[in-house]
Amino acid sequence: MASEIKPLYGLERVKLANAVPLPAPFTLFVFPTTYCNFKCQYCGHSLGYEQMKEKYNFEPENMSRQTYSRIIEQSKEFSTKYKMLSLTGHGEPLLNKELPFMIELAKKANVTERIEIISNASLLSRERSQALIEAGLDTLRISLQGLSSRKYEQVCGFKLDFDEFIDNIRYFYHNKKQCKVFVKIMDIALEQGEEERFYHLFSDISDRMYIEQCRPVYDGVDYSQSTAQVVVDRYGRIHAKRMVCPLPFYMLGIFPNGDVEPCDTIYKPVVVGNVHQESLYNIWNGAKLRQFQRLQLEKQRENNPKCRVCCAPDDVAQPEDALDDTADTIVKRFKF
Prior knowledge:
This is GTP 3',8-cyclase. Keywords: 4Fe-4S, Iron, Iron-sulfur, Metal-binding, S-adenosyl-L-methionine. Its cofactor is [4Fe-4S] cluster. This protein is about 30% helix and about 10% strand. By secondary structure, it is α/β, with parallel strands linked by helices. The longest helix is centred in the middle third of the chain and has 13 residues, at about 160-175.
């Protein structure tokens, strides 16, 4: 078996408490699109665009070349590269036909150590695969929704030829050059006893594979059929509830219209700027972000109504990112 059974997040992590404040974000999430061709049962897209607008003030749209080009040009102002540029958001990135251009532009600008996308891979034709590979993609993370065509239709309402889907992933893997292929599936998308089939199926067409545990990521989505608990992350690690969200200390998220938020969640807890009005450098060092970071360090994040319903600190934040125990010390390093 060539593939490793390991979580799909970066395994070589800096202890965040020792590094903040950072001169530049470790990770920049740029959302090429907020459209999706799936309506997975555990995702906000299952609510439909009308309810998503009501619940999250969510607008489906594609990012333009103009907006993206501004982001990359502004990224050159930082003194250090991003560790990762993730062309991933609350949608399926392959729906934006400009994706290969986006990858290539960032590569040429040399603003990041690696570029990744997270995709359901349903649109990963051979032609698209070649375009992504030639553009210089470093990591393709594939989120599966089952191990059969029937399961896909059940979980996300999408008619998928599963055998063709696997063939397309195999084609990408065998032609990928330096790119890594990571494959993951939520436990609730597996039938009883399918774990070994998952590992066998992707053992020779991925570099890393993992089964994650479903957590209540989207407020308003019914998780009653899962065993979701916010003090257990999606990798099965139990921890004390975190009152300091570490995400705004090492990342930014950018919506297709240029709005910048201090994380990558669907909620937009605060808009700290827009790339059409000010630079990413000024946003990263600006008063709006600092005010939001101070809210976190004072363990008052639940005073923000969007943060109150968000489980990201307990779901996706890694042990090395936790700031609760050192918040009093860290706050003294910042200029508020």
